[in-house]
Amino acid sequence: MVFLGLQIGGIGVMTLATILAVIASKRLGLSVRKMMAGDVDPSRLHERDGGDSHGMRLSEVKGLLKTVLISVVVIELALAAIIVPRLLAWGLDPVSALWQGGYLAASAFTNTGFVPLVDGLSPFLNDPIMVFTIGIGVFLGSIGFPVIYAIARALKTVRLRRLRRTLDHARLGIHAKLTLTTTTILLVIGALAIGSLEWGNEKTLGSQPGAYRPMTALFVSMMSRSGGFNTVDTSEMNGATLLVLDMLMFVGGGSASTAGGIKVTTLAILFLAAFAEARGNQDIVAYERRIPSDTVRLAVSVVLWGASIVAIATITIMRITDAPLDKVLFDVISAFATCGLSAGLTSNDLPDSAKYVLSATMLLGRVGTVTLATALSGTHRQTVYRRAKERPIVG
After folding, report:
1. Total-model pTM
2. What is d(CA 14, CA 132) in angstroms, rounded to the nearest whole number?
């Protein structure tokens, strides 16, 4: 049941229902396409201009559904094919290795972080094959199905162009470019910060040979994006490292992905807006494309929503438990981002009331940001007049 639950949660209830409907009716009507496109890209719920310039076009919905089905099966089978032999070499019997290897593969791709092994992943701390396999699975799940679809479509175009069957050029949309670029930047910066801060900590990276420490730092940086796996004890990290992980977890992964958080494109849009303002540009431009102002307002709303949830939950749990701020904040953000890492707060000694607060934070973090984006995108209204302009003092 847990295995099915993490698969459904990773794929998405709406996506799964649409796939089943298509299988049953053998067709994909316009209404279903609009529903799926709106679920992936809430900005489609209102059309300010006549063009189809959204991150998810109606013509791409069928291809996206095929990508979801194929990528889930192919990626998880590929991950399991690598993980199972490592478990066999570790000493598990073939049946246990096959089941637990498949479970780990699904848990990695869906960014769930559940480990069926008694000792977790700590026995594989110095196993590059296992570490990078889990890391790649989490990365592919965190970038989102629209990005996977865009990459697959670009690769198909390249192949057809080589065979001289098309004159089209392979290109990635702005959503895919922003997601991949921002994810890579955060992954590298996070790894450098974690490695430098924990290099001499004997309870974490300091106990490893020097050659393996960068690998572990990169793995921790990737897992903080919503993966939830850990090969070292997170609760033994110093306060500065926990703060770095807080920021990475709060951002999370890509939109329409199996990861949580406010999403990397939200952060990218805010940085682009700040950069445009610093340069005095009226338009926010990325990769020769102009980003509409309503997208910026939506990004600001999502960040404020997430920050408010984290702040309220942190204050509430601190009043309940009297635990230190760094531990409470870490576990609250981990719950908001549905990450699964813990600084030691979530134990059997945690009061039930605090567990309820964390559970509500998980629900609001996973469902709330998407619901907020959909609600804000669907409440656009036009007026026949505009108020007089007056600027308040900012900064």
Report:
1. 0.84
2. 31
